[in-house]
Amino acid sequence: MAFEYNKSGSNAMPDINSFSINKMDHSKNPINDFYHYANGQWLTKIEIPDDKSSWGSFVELSERNLYLLKDITENCERETGKNNSENVKKIWNFYSSVMNTALLEDLKFKPIESYLSNIKRIKSRVELYEVLISLEESGITGLFSIQASQDKKNSSIYALYLEQGGLSLPNRDYYLEDSYKNILDEFEIFANKMFKLTNLQEYGEDTVKAILKFESELAKVSRSNEELRDEEKNYNRFERSNLKSLFSYFDLNDFITKLGVPEVSYVVVGQPEFFSSLNEIINRTGMETLKAYLSLRVVISASPLLNEELEDANFDFFGKKLMGLKVKEERWKKAVKLVSACMGEALGEIYVNKYFPEKSKRLMEEMVEDIKSVFREKLNNVEWMSQKTREKALEKFSTFRTKIGYPTKFLDYSSLEIKPDDLIGNVQRSSVFEIKRRLKRVGKEVDREEWEMSPQTVNAYFSPTDNEIVFPAAILQPPFFDPNMDKAVNYGAIGGVISHEITHGYDDQGSMYDASGNVNNWWSEADKNEFNKRARKVSDLYSSMEVLPGVFVHGERTNGENIADFGGVSIAYAALERHLKNHSEESKKLIDGLTPHQRFFISWAQIWGEKIRPEYLKLLVTVDPHSPAELRATLPVYNHKGFYEAFQTPGGVKEDKIKRDLISIW
After folding, report:
1. pLDDT tens for residues 66-81?
2. Do residue 533 and residue 606 come from a single domain?
3. At 483, which CATH number?
4. Is the same domain home to 497 and 635?
5. Does 291 share its domain with 372?
6. Element (H, E) at 154
């Protein structure tokens, strides 16, 4: 059993949380309530620490990792002066700047006074334009989003993307749906408080209402999360010379040039109607409202890095109101997270050298290859797909790549200045470092060896433009991966995660990308219709799930992740089946009175065991492309024939349960 935390907060490193029958509630019928059958005892005993919004495998492992990263940062202090590594010195200086709270109290909001003064001096459209550039350069986004990433229709080069943005709250639903009116009311109180704490009393209650009206208008012309899932509709190529036809309030072409974007001929605009509507919205909004809006953007962005009064005000709204947190996390945890966010690969390089055994990398590579071969078989045998489309699917799979543990080369931070007494400056310079690094590569050839996650991140991802799955070192430990556990448990945990990520290449979004990682329809119309018919069944199933009174899962919004979960269980189970056929002695072996097939499904359900605060659950249902953990644990399992065969008992499982029309795609 994992460490049981003091309710006032997580105050010690958690034990390694492995698969365990002690988590189970054997009084539950697995067919009727598999989630509590697999996790019931654990759910009864565990409490969410006051500084957490949820508690489960991902959070627990991330928490454990923080202690390891703390050890690294504190060792950097001891090594500074002895070790010639600039990264070691910078890691310690960054950490020190967060921990120096006495200095932050003395400074109050002085570190952002120059930003606020520049905004206050705005009197014209030209001056507004210049301030927007300076904020963007500092990592403070204004009216819209600017990103540099792979061109989705020519994945061999980097492109510049202009996207909708400008909202203070997590997404447009908070402004448009009546169920969030209480949050808008709280946000209004919060904004008024932030202006008072930063001596911006000229922005009174009427001004805050005007800001909310402005943001609500932006929300109305923003696309929904569901609409943003359509890769074709959100890829609109514009010649730079034609950007004025889209947005004329200021010169967008000049704007991106001044940010340091190379002279490429085109940009990709995600949502053209947002930018054309933005013209009208800005033109009918008073300059004082725009100035107040930008000031609030600065204060919200910086307040977690300032004195305690401003930090607490930010936490009271974004932490307590939106996420249900009770107390702030310990200061050192915040410090470690900031270092990891701003110098992730510098910290990650030390992390893998100290904590990631090469044996884990080797075993993981073997399991990935095993599961890939099973998925290839599935593609060869899927009944609803025509031969022509199947050949395209197999062609795509032939270019599939895997990255495990850590990158072959780490980022060079030599040009990044980090000071022990300048927290805001450190974060700002880190933002500039990353923004410039990304923007200057627009139009250049893609570096296929680059990672989007640091090695110490407890997660994994699929990149459709690279057609690859990536597993950072941190997730390759219990409860996800345990070399000391039987194959069934590992196939149910990390095997399910591997299969989940592979399936993303063939979910509702991933299936839009071809073998080269480009958005390109390789499906016949009939096959696409067959796929969509099955995907709709998954979407409808999740949409019927009420997770809080009156709060339902958005089945379409979460469909990619749900399809991947279905594939995760199906493919990993098939891989286990093949292993057991080749090792017949294992198939008959009971461990803790459970068959390998039972342990597989229990292992899957246990990695999704979670307690969550209702405020945070509502937030996730609104913004997260993943479904709530309990549904991830159960719905893919309830739609797998092998589950009913594994848990059938005399009189316990009716034949029609196995024969019913289960939902299946891959």
Report:
1. 999 999 999 887 766 5
2. yes
3. 3.40.390.10
4. yes
5. no
6. strand 154-164
Looking at the domain assignment, is residue 83 inside a domain? no
Q: Mark which of 273, 290, 305 sits at the end of a domain.
A: 305
User: Concatenated DSSP letters for 26-38?
Assistant: TTS-TTT-HHHHH
Does residue 5 have a pLDDT over 50? no
Give the residue from 285, 305, 325 where a domain finishes: 305
Q: Is-contact 223 271, C-beta < 8 A? A: yes
pLDDT higher than threshold 90 for residue 586? no
- Residue 577 buriedness (CB in 10 A; 0-12 / 13-18 / 19+): middle
Cα(233)–Cα(494) distance, integer angstroms: 34
Instruction: With beta carbons less than 8 A apart as the criterion, state whether 158 and 446 touch.
Output: yes
Say yes or no: 259 and 403 in one domain: no
Considering its fold, how many domains does the chain have in total? 2
| CA distances to 216, 523, 529, 623 from 512, in Å | 32, 9, 13, 23
**Crossing angle of helices 525-543 and 559-582, rounded to 10°:** 100
Question: Which residues neighbour 450 within 8 Å (Cβ) at sequence distance 6 or greater?
Answer: 407
Q: What percent of the chain has pLDDT over 90?
A: 90
Query: pLDDT of 316-344, one tens digit each?
Result: 999 999 999 999 999 999 999 999 999 99
d(CA 515, CA 505): 10
Q: Token pair of 62, please? A: 């991330």
Range of the domain at 153: 110-305
Asked if 147 and 267 sit in the same domain, the reply is yes
Q: Are residues 118 and 229 in the same domain?
A: yes
Distance CA 126, CA 179 (A): 39
Tell me the DSSP string of 239-287: EGGGHHHH-TTTTHHHHHHHTT----SEEEES-HHHHHHHHHHHHTS-H
* Pairing mode of beta strands 468-472, 401-405: parallel
- Considering only CA atoms, which of 566, 553, 466 is closest in space to residue 507? 566
Rounded Cα–Cα distance for residues 321 and 46 (Å): 23
Mean pLDDT of 461-486: 95
Is 256 in the same domain as 364?
A: no
Examine residue 71 and state whether it is found in any structural domain, yes or no: no
The domain spanning residue 237 has which CATH number?
Answer: 1.10.1380.10
Same domain, 231 and 367: no
How far apart, in Å, do the first and last CA atoms of the chain sit? 35
Cβ atoms of residues 217 and 211 within 8 Å: no
